[in-house]
Amino acid sequence: MQLSEEEIENLSIDKFIFHVVHHRNDEPILLDETPIGEFEDFFLERAMETLRGNRFTFADGSITRTLLRQVLDDESQFVPVSKTLAQTFHAGRDKRIKPGVMILMTLVTGQRKLLSVLKYDHEEAVTYDITDDAKAILKAIANSFTKSADALQKSALIELVDGDDDDNIVVVDKTVRHEITDFFRGFLACKRLFDDKQMTQAVEELVVEVVKKHQSDLPNDITQNVRDRYYDTVQKRDKFDAAEFFAEFFGAHGSAAVRASFDKGLAKKGMEGEVFKFDKGAVKKQRPQKYKTAEGVKIDVPEQASDTVKTKTTEAGTVITITTSRLTNL
Q: Does residue 91 surpass a pLDDT of 90?
């Protein structure tokens, strides 16, 4: 899901409500109204944080999608549907899930209408007031909404469009950032838009594109061994995180211009903000290589002979070493 800067600037909350879930009672505490008052900007920011999440789509027959469709088709269903969702959310008993609230919002920007589902954990906070005689009075607040990254545990930003396969869902699940917990997956009834193999290969394609675009600004160690370098990086890392991967792959040569091309490429592939587990078997180390020196010497290295050719960059230039059992003069 992508929103333009203008769409983000014009985004507003149309409807808002929350219900108390995962407390120690058998049923959630259902509310009829929760006026948002002066705190619209706060909750808009929380919803927008979800844009940097992982892409999903609803599974066939998703009850959650059916309920959310009712909200968009009939505004009077907003509160009843929110209560049904809260009951479903609350029914998923898991001791790891802390007490908190489930928030449902509808958001509008231009002609687009989005839905946001947030799970906020209850947090204890200590605030203070300063009196006229320079004394501080501490006050404890048990149930609070904070900007803490740990408090907003689960969030989904959803856009329903014609055709189930075209739905846009972006999910952030702090419990397992590179995926989604079974609990939240079951609640939404969703599936990952791209699998790990597809995303591993897509990043490889992107890296090759970025290196080719900036080859004049990158050292030979990167430009001449881009696929092998990617293979080695994948084998060393368990998961893909854009910032961490970029820093390791490009190192000190990861300029602002290179990073901009990398980020733009991720967005173009619909993978901006994606965190996923690398499929180590989806890439291969050995690939055909072709070199051409500044003096016009061409070297073709077949895949099976890639281990016989080594390159090393020195101050004087690039040294190419070819080890062979026999040299033939053609």
A: no
